[in-house]
Amino acid sequence: MLSKNQIKLIRSLKQKKYRLQHQLFVIGGKKTILELLNSELKLHQLYTTTLDFDVSDVLQTIITPNELHKISFLKTPNETLAVFNIPKPQPIDHNKLILALDNVRDPGNLGTIIRLCDWFGVKDLLCNLETVDCFNPKVVQATMGSIARVNITYLDLESFLSNQKGIQKFGAFMEGESIYSMELPKSGILVLGNEANGITKIIASQITERITIPRFGNMQVAESINVANAAAILLSEFKRGTRTTET
User: Fold this and answer.
1) Where are the domains of the chain?
2) Which residue has the higher pLDDT, 117 or 75?
């Protein structure tokens, strides 16, 4: 049976300040939980209505569907919820492509971008302090387990970029050099901006290469594309020429 303190702790993790205080985050869904259990992330506690997990009794609590409903953040919870320790960021590898986000606010967009980093082998994702928390339950759910394989670091992005001397810093803008006409390096920093306003002026001042995804529609009236869609296109282009040279 769940105690009141357990319920209170789990429910509190919906808010960023308590995730930071306890250094814990929540994930639901058997498939994603199994993926995280097989990663380097540390399990804090598993709450499940089944006996399908190879987890020690100390770290596993069998609960009823009604108890699961009390602690789940989903409208229709499914069998299992897990609480994991938030991992400590690892050193950033400056010899490979780094993706940086400037004020990306939508949890679904961030979750998708984390999945894209995983897909394209981008190990380091940098987020400025105004970007949505990557351990927000909606973000974690959207990553489908990729959050365990991407090194995500929150920092003062303007200060970080200003200290990166001799490194190309690419920024995605509506006006810039077409991504399809460029010879792209295997290392550097690619910056994507806010869903509505793009890259902020203070970050734009640090960009050395302004790039764009050209429009091909006959009417050329679409204002922009979704930031996660832009990430997919840009990462694909950066990685296309390096596929045979990277390990």
Assistant:
1) 4-85, 97-240
2) 117
